[in-house]
Amino acid sequence: MPITPETTVADIATAAPATIRVFQHHHIDFCCGGRIPLAQACAERGIETDLVLTQLLAATTPATAEPTWAEAPLSELISHIQARYHEPLRNELPRLEAMVAKVLSRHGEKLPDVLPPLYETFVGLREELLEHMLKEDRVLFPVITALEAGAPLPIADAGAWMPSPVAVMEAEHESAGQALARMRALTNDYTPPEWACPTFRGLYFGLAQLETDMHLHVHLENHVLFPRAMQLARA
């Protein structure tokens, strides 16, 4: 569906759930008050239509492929992981939690076997991911960066120390993967019911995007960063 200033906000959000982030950012009502043209919604919020239109089109454009990191400095890879995954996750997880809580409160009775366990699984995943990233950012990543730079280390023997935190991080990755798989199973591959409102559809889209990003995130750590850090620690 082409997105133009005349397209209604609700139609845009329904056809392209990725645009919901843009509407939320600008506090444009895409749900109950979304049956108005985009240009009118922007005018009511005092926002330039062309700006929002550009952001909406960007939101629906497939992301570029991830670069390869097999030979990049580990410090650059760590900075990329933190900027591309950790910081966005810290912003995205509260947004998704608010959405899943809203959908549960409004539609939980209609889908008692789906929404309550979905909320419970998501909250557990959120808590696990926030703690996990904190440990990486404060403990493991600084050691790897210092090791690569030849700087003083807070540990006596990097080769003996490194396997333990890496094993813990990989185990937590596995646990997060199980939670993501459970959410996908509960939602029938993130297929919203026909009667789902834009918020409901946006939630499922956001959870699917979370899963996609987590797979890329974990891949970079498990298959690129950690093996290279282990090799460096043993050198």
Q: Calculate the mean pLDDT score and round it.
A: 93
The global form is elongated
What is the number of helices? 9
How many β strands by DSSP? Answer: 0
Beginning-to-end CA distance, first to last residue = 55 Å
How would you briefly describe this protein structure?
By secondary structure, the chain is mostly helical.
Task: Tag the structure with descriptive keywords.
2 domains, 71% helix, 235 residues, mainly alpha
List the SSEs and their pairings:
Layout: H1 9-15, H2 20-25, H3 38-45, H4 49-59, H5 74-107, H6 115-149, H7 158-161, H8 163-186, H9 198-234
Notes on the structure:
With 235 residues, the chain is mainly α. It folds into two domains: 9-59, no CATH class; 74-234, no CATH class. 71% of the residues lie in helices and 0% in strands. The chain has nine helices and no strands. The chain has helices spanning 9-15, 20-25, 38-45, 49-59, 74-107, 115-149, 158-161, 163-186, 198-234. The longest helix is centred in the C-terminal third of the chain and has 37 residues, at 198-234. It is elongated and about 65 Å long. The chain starts with 8 loop residues before the first helix and ends with a helix.
